[in-house]
Every structure is written in C-alpha cells, then in structure tokens.
Design brief:
Layout: E1 2-4, E2 7-9, H1 17-24, H2 27-38, E3 41-42, H3 43-47, H4 55-67, E4 71-76, E5 79-84, H5 87-96, H6 103-120, H7 122-130, E6 134-144, H8 148-156, H9 159-162, E7 175-178, E8 185-191, E9 194-205, E10 209-216, E11 224-235, E12 238-249, H10 253-277
Antiparallel strand pairs: 1-2, 3-5, 4-5, 6-12, 7-8, 8-9, 9-10, 10-11, 11-12
Helix pairs in contact: 1-4
Length: about 280
C-alpha cells in the first residue's frame, strides 16, 4: 500500500475479475464509485447522496466494493474516508479495451467532451467566441539523466516538493498535489478542504503517460480549456520528457510566449534539476 497525502493506491493485490464485474453490476455501487471519483468521502457523506436506500445498504455496497479492491479506505482521526482504486479498472481496460482501440478514439473522445461542454455551457462558449477564441499548442522535449521510474515517481509523488512556490496562485497555498488515479485532482491545497483546482487526470499510464484537462477562469486570463500531456520515454540511458500543452479559448500569441517560458522554467529547469539530484 502506497500512501501519498490522503490518497491511497493499492498496486500489488491480485485482480479478481469476477468480483470486479459483480461489484460493477449494481447501479448503486456504480453511483458510489461516481461519487468518490470526484473526491474521497466518508460513509455518511456517501449515504447523503442516496434517497432510495439507507446508510446500512450503503455500507453493504461499500463492503462489496472493498472486497473487489475498487474502493480503499483510510482512517484519519475518528473519520474513515473511502477512495476509488483505479488499478482493477485499469486491468480490465488493458485486457478488453486497449488492444482494440485506435488513436482516433482519443480524438473523438476529446471532440465529444468539447461538444458536451458547449451544450451545457453556451454562455461560457459564446463569451469565448466573442473574444476571438483561439487555440495554441506548446511542445517541449526535455532530456533527463535518470531512469524512467525515478522520473515518474518525482513527477507524481514529489510534486509538492519541486513545484515552484512562485507558481502558486495564493499565499494560502500549503501544498501542491496530483492525485494518482483517473479522475484525480491536480490542485493547490489551502488547508481545511480549501484550495484551487488546476486540472483533473484524464489518462494515467504509469510510468509513461499523464494527461490532464483543466479550465482557465477569466480571473486567470480565460475563459479557456487546457489539455496537458506529460509523456516519458527511455532514451540513451536516461528519460525524455515530452510536454504538450494545448489551450482553447481566450488566448493570444503573447499567452503562448508566457506559457512557454513558464513551463520551461518549471520543467526544464526546476523539475529536471530536482530529478537529477535524486539519482
């Protein structure tokens, strides 16, 4: 069991496919997974989301989900929080889905998300169009003299150490966190459940690929949507980190220059030096 802040990820348990399918067959259990996918919840907080079933029934469903390793728990003080564990779902994906998918499926998914976002947020999209919405893409390739597993560990687990304090958006920020599971948050933690969300994890394929989707609010130069991909590949005894950042919305060429300079400062300078110092 690996503990990262309040995030629990179990990676070495045997995968019982039959128990996973049985757990997912019930609509209430799927709803529980949807609830804790957004953020960890106590049993009481989960029960509040149900009108048709009571707390006892929720506890029984949680026991089934725990038995299939789809839910992990962590007790802090007198409260026990429930966390989604994406590893069994990733195993199912690898076995039944991944080998049949093609690259265009990812592009269609992003197109679908953009279409759904437009239908739900017409005012938001219209405001972007009125302000001459554009798309900018930044790509950086950064060679790092360290093996791929160390680079991945530093990228995910140590982000609160190497993330520059001058990149924080608030003086209240106490830590910077990436939750290492699909749907997890990349966020600034202000403490007491306060903070600022940068993005959510769309793809987690350790130790090769991390993809994030975020929103840039008007107070931070938007409105805009951002898609960031961090890809790792072994290269000549080290690791090549490729960062691709695409922003759609109210952005300009000046924004591209500023973002490029910022990502170079963060990843090409700070992160690279941090990883190489850990060899």
């Amino acid at each position: 069991m690996i503990k990262e802040g309040e995030v629990l990820v179990r990676t070495n348990d045997p995968i019982d496919v039959n128990r996973i399918w049985k757990a997912l067959a019930d609509a209430n259990r799927r709803k529980i997974l949807d609830i804790i996918r957004e953020s960890p919840k106590t049993t009481g907080e989960i029960a509040e989301e149900f009108n048709e079933i009571g707390r006892c029934a929720v506890m029984k469903h949680l026991k089934v989900l725990e038995g299939s390793s789809l839910v992990l728990t962590n007790k802090k003080g007198k409260f026990k929080k429930n966390y989604i564990n994406a590893v069994p779902l990733q195993a199912i994906y690898e076995r039944w889905v991944k080998k049949y998918e093609a690259q265009w499926a990812s592009n269609l998914l992003q197109l679908k998300e953009l279409a759904e976002y437009e239908s739900k947020s017409n005012h938001y999209i219209n405001s972007m169009m009125n302000d001459q919405a554009n798309t900018i893409t930044i790509k950086l390739e950064i060679p790092i003299e360290a093996n791929i597993n160390l680079v991945w560990k530093c990228l995910i687990e140590d982000v609160g150490i190497w993330w520059r304090k001058d990149f924080y958006t608030s003086a209240k920020t106490q830590n910077f966190i990436i939750e290492p599971f699909v749907g997890g948050r990349m966020y600034e933690d202000y403490g007491d459940d306060n903070g600022l969300l940068w993005a959510n994890v769309m793809v987690l394929d350790a130790p090769n690929n991390l993809e994030l989707k975020g929103h840039l609010s008007p107070s931070f130069g938007g409105p805009a949507m951002t898609f960031k991909k961090l890809a790792l590949e072994e290269s000549e005894g080290g690791t090549m980190l490729t960062l691709t950042d695409t922003t759609f919305g109210k952005v300009s060429e000046n924004s591209k220059d500023q973002l490029t300079a910022g990502w170079k400062m963060l990843y090409e300078d700070t992160f690279k030096k941090y990883v190489e110092s850990k060899k």
